[in-house]
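Annex B.
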Amino acid sequence: MSRSAREDILARISRAVDGAPEVEIPRRYRATARVDDLVGLFTERVGDYRAIVHVVPEAEVPARIAGIVAGRRMVVPDGLPAEWTPPDASDAGPADPYTADGVITGCAVAIAETGTIVLDTGPGQGSRAQTLVPDYHLCVVRADQIVAGVPEAVSRLDPIRPLTWISGPSATSDIELNRVEGVHGPRTLEVLVAVS
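LUD domain-containing protein: predicted structure tokens.
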């Protein structure tokens, strides 16, 4: 009876390390980064991804949302702050993501260095289908949700929750190196950064 090559290799490795002392591997990952202007860097990086970005005072967010989504049939996820809900959304009932013009959400956290928005399906963030199926996504990011880097973002997230990491509108260059937008998510991403 012959053993497979895989079993032979694993047996040889096991014999080679048998009796070797345990080695502690130091993990000195960068946990924080210094960014003087989180909002400025975040908006610059989100803009680099061809997203539409607006920095607005928090008090003006409801009026800006109403103006942006006027006339559009929007998916409004459960838990979206009432003041962010478009005035005509309650009359129409919940929009189907497959027939809606777009979706409006909040976020769990945003990352300045990468221009990334993270959704965790929490209140006001919607399900993956609600946020990935419509062709347009309006996301409200509060300034206090912006962190400098990925390690800080990860420390704020629950790894058990379904996470959607958004870095600009959906796009790919897999097809003959031509950029194609809207392949696996919204073709248009618009971001309102709410500052106090």
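Residues 142 and 194 are 5 Å apart (CA to CA). The radius of gyration is 22 Å. Further annotation is deferred to the next reporting cycle.
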